[in-house]
Amino acid sequence: MAERIGIYVCHCGSNIAGTVDVEEVARWAGKNIDDVIVAKDYKFMCSSLGQAMIEEDIKKEGLTRVVVAACSPHLHEKTFRRACENAGLNPYLFQMTNLREHVSWVCNDKVKGTAKAKAMVAASAERVKYQQPLTPMYVDVNPATLVVGGGIAGLQAALELADAGYKVYLVEREPSVGGHMAQFDKTFPTLDCSACILTPKMSEAGQHENITLLTYSELEEVSGSVGNFKVKIRKKARYVDYDKCTGCGICSEKCPRKIVDEGFEAGLGTRKAIYTPFPQAVPRVPVIDTENCTYFTRGKCQVCSKVCPTEAIDYEQKDEMVEIEVGNIILATGWKLFDCKKIPQYGYGRLANVFTNMEFERLCNAAGPTNGKIVMRDGKTEPKSIAIIHCVGSRDVNFNEGCSAVCCMAALKLGHLILEKTKAEVYSFYIDMRTNQKMYEEFYQRLLHEGMHFVRGKVAEVTDAARNPNEQGKLIVQCEDTLLGKQRRIPVDMVVLMGAIEPQADAKELGLKCGISCSMAGWYTERHPKLDPVATMTDGVFVAGTCQGAKDIPASVAQGAAAAARVQGMITKGKVMIEPIVATINEEACSGCRICNNLCPYNAIEYLEDKGVSRVITALCKGCGTCVAACPAGVISASHFNNQQVFAEIEGALWDAIAECREPETV
Amino acid sequence: MKYAYYPGCSMECNAAAYEVSTQAVARVLGFELAEIDDWNCCGATEYFSQDELTACAVVARNLALVDSRTDQLVAPCAACYLNLAKTDKLMTDDPEMGRKINQALAAGSLHYEGGRVKVRHLLDVIYHDFGEEKIREKVVRPLDGLRVAPYYGCQVVRPIKGDDSTEYPMQMDEMFTWLGAEVVDYPVKAHCCGGHMTQISEPQAFELIRRLLQSAVDYEADMILCMCPMCQLNLDAYQSRVNGFFNTNFSMPIIYFTQMLGIAFGLDPKELGFGKELVAAEPVLKAKLTAKTTT
Q1: Which residues does A32 contact at the CB level (< 8 Å), separation at least 6?
Q2: Is residue B206 situated within a structural domain?
């Protein structure tokens, strides 16, 4: 019996109708495609009226198949599947055609657009005839959650979930949680001490009964899917026994090897070869830096071992692999600072008194290498004038096109700290002053009153080439003052570069492990930039904080909490639907060659020794089709994507070419 | 290796030292510069600001004259390099411009397709096509102890962006570390020498020249290395005028980078055009390199 197909073409306002003759597509489909019973166009098919129309047609016309040609299935596939289900039609007998993203938005020729739309509708109509009713499966959601990254966003997410009574694994690559926020002195615009508001959260995370802290650890591998992920984590060897160590700190104190701390102290301070990054570190268990440890490099010393009162030092410790099972994953992996040496005309790394903002944060910090005294690179001279240069590596087509979002406010904050702590004149060189959150503009006004100087213009260079006695021995900031319309040269003692916020170097790699992608700029891509900012295209994987895009502390905290709320929603629901789109092996015809076993990226194929054949474990299969393509006997098929369906779709797409080929026969 | 060669007018007179040292270095490194037959002036900077189309047509004639068997054209002068490269780019990016220029070229039975020839500066050729290993191999008299200030000027690094940094180029710096010299990392190496400003307003021109000389002195350079005849002329020939104007006493030799490459390759200074410069390099070379020369 022939199928009875309904075709519905959406205008999407003018989104589709602007470049596709929607009425013509519907009319044409009704007339030219076999088995089409109704073919309609409608202004907004996703509206309740549009859905009701489909439901009514299914019931009244006895439709057995439905095609909606509208936007991306990412947006509305669920909507129309539900409509079909409401009218008693199995939702997998519905097919969605993406006219908006695949035609109208990428085309400006209405004739060509309409022709392509017809081909795509024909493809879906031919395909849908061969679709089969499927029943989705439901699996339980493991209530434990993995949070990757122990900065403020990750801490917030972990604490929200843990406080709600759920188990959290918090993985952090550094020896302590805290992230960048732990390095700052004050936070804008309230000027509360960064450590004072952060460390309570750190220690709470360290002591929480529902949080397992895995510091100095990295995520190695993720398998499984939403509700049931299996995660492998590498706990790097600390060379200190976690259980025996009391965190007394004698080892670090006595360690004879002192090195420049390029991490937490941004190269301005020193640390020992056995160290915790900062006094309030959580956990307080130190790590040995084997590259610099005298024992590891020369085989002699062992002072730490001799002084440790609890015999916690273990030079033989090895990296350890931990396997955990979780239902959801939150990535909160943060950012890295732009390498300011990439802009050589600003002199960083060449002119001693040019600093990055992170170096300067440490310089201002009372717990920093100078105890909060703002001094020049010689470690003693107080500067009489300081220039702060905005947008170093951001809003710059050569490096990062985007705005780093926080630097204007951070520059104002640093300006305030300088004015508070020194008698120096402070100059800000900005392109645009961006102070658009609560109390931010007020803070800018405050700095104007406090006497910070503002020069609007992008700095051309920072140089030590003096042109007159005034400039002798100074750093000269050369800039076009765009408000004065003049070139200016301002001699200063010290320059601070507000480096761009960039994605972590390995963000893409980690994203791939979790099945999520990055934007062109390298930030994790959210499911929807406005309406679903912490979910991703992979169910069960969420993002929070600066790994999703440059943002300040309040916004990072909000995202951490939002991600936790989304995960709680999944846990409370308890079950998650698994698409019934899976592969099946025809056991009768399987030769048991086992090629598919190793190729499956989800380890979803088992080998039945007794029968000598392979079998797909339906609950693990993601329907990727790798085994289908690889099977030398061609006995694996993927439901919803079988050969018959795919070939029919191709024939439909080529309807005009096929019609031309057939013409001579019919004549 | 063989390249088409566009020497430009300066190489025949005021930059004769650049020309002989370029040819000498080419012989040592083993490449041939085949001069374009019947080439004409590139128009320098003036012609382009008068009438772009005519200026381009004049330059394009040289591109059209490049032997069809080669696609690499070398220019040692920064201004010639820029004009040739700019014309080629304009003809590639703007087909209408290309059509008009070819209409003009047709009068001389010539034709040029934008992009056919790759225009390169001499520094780029020596730096990239020979590179560290081959250059080090040829060094017989390392420039140990000699403090050189590489000076790039404007036109080789901008506006047409090559692979060296526009703001802070490094290729000559690197090359001279291969030769054993101490390279001075001074901040004005890509600043303007004033070009033809000396003909328009001496105070402005002299100030630009003074800044370059002063920075090289501040960084204790023994000499400034040039890669452009215009830069060399300004810094060298006007040095005494600058001294008079500002009451300074600069005595900074301004030498073509090829001349010092030649010295490092063990060639006789006479073969390399030394002695033609107005601020003599001889005292510096004697003081810094004599010990090496005699061994």
Answers
A1: A122, A655
A2: yes
